[in-house]
Amino acid sequence: DPVTEGDSVTNIFYHPLVPRSVVLIGKFERGDFIYDKPEIERRLADIGVVVERKVSLKTDFVIIGKDPEETDVDRNNYIVVKTMNIPRLEDAEARETFEFYLGD
């Protein structure tokens, strides 16, 4: 059994005292990801995550999908993320994270 008495189990999307603030940038489509963007937003909200549209100083981390610079809003968010050095999940890491933390 990989989890034994005394182990701590954490979820990067959840904090019991302070809701996490997350921004999704780019496309999230079934096939490339386990869920599409609306489903990801719903599942994150279900566990108390605040899903924002724009990156700000309150953003805890950003999840980057495909084509992160396709729209003006996503392009601006992507530039801010790189400038402010906000923690981010991209590509395979983002897919694996969704499957692990949000999977059924």
Please describe what this structure looks like.
This protein is of the alpha/beta class and 104 residues long. The relative contact order is 0.21. It contains 3 helices and 4 strands, in the order E-H-E-E-H-E-H. Strand 1, helix 1 and strand 2 form a beta-alpha-beta unit. The model has no long low-confidence stretch (mean pLDDT 87). The chain has helices at 37-46, 72-84, 91-102; strands spanning 21-25, 50-52, 61-64, 88-90. The chain has a 4-stranded parallel sheet, with helices on both faces. Helices cover 34% and strands 14% of the residues. It is globular, with a radius of gyration of 14 Å.
Protein topology:
Layout: E1 21-25, H1 37-46, E2 50-52, E3 61-64, H2 72-84, E4 88-90, H3 91-102
Parallel strand pairs: 1-2, 1-3, 3-4
Radius of gyration: 14 Å
What is the ordering of alpha helices and beta strands?
EHEEHEH
Specify the helix fraction band.
Answer: 25-40%
How many helices in DSSP terms? 3
Strand content: 5-15%
How confident is the prediction overall: mean pLDDT?
Answer: 87
Distance between the termini: 20 Å
What's the β-strand tally?
4
